[in-house]
Amino acid sequence: MGAQAKHTKRTRGAAGGSAAGAAGAAGADAAPPADIAAVAPALLAWHAEHGRHDLPWQHDPTPYRVWVSEIMLQQTQVATVVGYFDRFMRRFPDVAALAAAPLDEVLHLWSGLGYYSRARNLHRAARLIVAEHGSELPGSAAALAELPGIGRSTAAAIRALSAGERAAILDGNVRRVLSRYFAVAGAPSERAVQQQLWQLAEECTPAGEVARYTQAIMDLGATVCVRNRPRCAECPLQERCSAHRSGRQHDFPTARVRAPRRTESVVMLFARQSDGSVLLERRAERGVWGGLWCPPQFANVAAARKFARTRLADAQVEPRSRTVLRHAFTHFELEISPLMASCAGANSVQEAAPIVWYNPARPQPLGLPAPVTALIQRLE
Fold this sequence. Notes:
CATH superfamily of the largest domain: Hypothetical protein, domain 2
Order of helices and strands: HEHEHHHHHHHHHHHHEEEEHEEEEH
Largest sheet: 5 strands, mixed
Number of helices: 16
Structural class: alpha+beta
CATH class of the largest domain: Mainly Alpha
Distance between the termini: 62 Å
Number of strands: 10
Helix content: 40-55%
Radius of gyration: 25 Å
Strand content: 5-15%
Shape: globular
């Protein structure tokens, strides 16, 4: 393969000469050290037999299909994404269809995937592609990275997987593989560590069979070199992996120090008309559930009651909120206390914020957070 011919025989017991990696290499009973030139051949051979070959976006891997899949796969498991991807492609088969759709419809199809800024950026980028690039995704990683929601790694993945262009990626799975193989010390979020990993990613990416290699290293990180309980016995890089040879697989990548998870409590006012319609308002784009539709939210019951008294006509509010629903986000836990109210008609709302009466019996294609949808169904 062309990749091996390009690389000189460079070996690393630990990238950047870290003491931990070097110590592991010294005590490895003459096992071969981590070798850049060995990565691509081992991964390509492994992927031919053990990699994933039948994912929906692997069929007809156009730049558009790869782009949508890569955005969906950020922070989300493949098993979850498959169904969403198929539905999304049926409704938005190309970038022009996505650009022409209302944002609410895009968010509606995204509901349940979480991290909704991804959907907003996808829609915003589609409109830019239509307006400025003739409805075709830019043909270089650098130009792709200028679009909303597409960073360096995603841009490289689009070009590598759809066009076979030699472009190195560094998503979470790849960071984990490289951090362990080369025993890269330090949290990947640190600038110096990130630069080191990018250099390794560039050096390991072969000149040929780039699409296969890119899929292979992502698959290895997703299915074998996993965060907890890595399946080292099944790994094609095991023999030369610095972390494995020193018995320190779980030390890499270095964990980032996280702040303690906080709990935030809110009251949601479920104001309903006689036909079962629920009052929803669009949330600001920044923050939790940005751009989605939710019942009015308040810090406490008193504030919710004041809203009902001053903004809704003839509102009858229940004496107390109902059972709390808990929803976990990445950095905090949200406790939602539903407060029920019945009110007159749609004209009773006295405010300028975007609102809609949502009838779960005849649902509109709106972007609702999955917990809100579940709450509406439960309260019905």
